[in-house]
Amino acid sequence: MRQFRTTRLMVLAGALSCAAAAHSQHGGGMGGMGGGRMGGGIGNMNRGLRGNNASNPSPGAHLGLSGRWWDERKTIKSLNLRDDQKQRMDEVFASNKGSLVTLLGNLKHEENALSSMSKQDRQDETKVFAAINRVETARGELAKEIAHVQLQIRQQLDPDQVIKLDAAIASQQ
To answer: 3-state class of 162 per DSSP?
Structure first.
């Protein structure tokens, strides 16, 4: 019975590591600002941070489109964004980029720690669950920061633009 429990834990840890790796490859986060839709999860601010534009599969509040959507011609045209709005959005992103990079680094560190646990530590349920908790805490902190930034960016929009943005987000889901 104990061996079955240990095997089950190893499968769980392996599955979580694979999910974390896939999450990272797809922009990780709440699906919005990073590489996904800041509505699908973290909201992929990561695209702005890492230069990828993969969509983010994780669940979460849909607060924005993927990446630096305010720089995309199609979005600029559909929302009728003004240059002053885009400038303020750039300023919001720039002022928060350092904390986003730090939080993304923390998440990567915790994911790597979980993935590289020693064989002996992987046998210890307490250590495995503690490592999983650290990963999820780091992921949650990053998700909250991305949501915070996306909300600040949304505040630069006029009410009619917010309605159009929400419709664009809904059409991507």
So the answer is: helix
Contact (Cβ atoms closer than 8 angstroms) between residue 105 and residue 112: no
**Averaged pLDDT in 10-residue chunks for the chain of 173 residues:** 42 40 38 35 41 38 75 94 96 96 97 96 96 98 95 96 93 84
In the numeric block, which tokens belong to residue 59?
């669940």
Q: Where are the domains of the chain?
A: 2-172
Q: How far apart are CA 87 and CA 70, in angstroms?
A: 9
Cα separation, 36 vs 150, whole angstroms: 12
* Phi, psi (deg, nearest 5) at residue 41: 165, -130
Compute CA distances 88 → 23, 84, 97, 140, whole Å: 30, 6, 14, 26
pLDDT for residue 63: 65
The model's pTM: 0.65
**Contact yes or no for 36/57 (Cβ under 8 A):** yes
Closest to 10 measured CA to CA, from 136, 140, 131: 131
How far is it, in rounded angstroms, from Cα 46 to Cα 32? 9
The kind and range of the H/E element at 134 are: helix 125-154
DSSP 8-state assignment for residue 120: H
Residue type, 4: F
User: Which of helix, strand or coil describes residue 145?
Assistant: helix
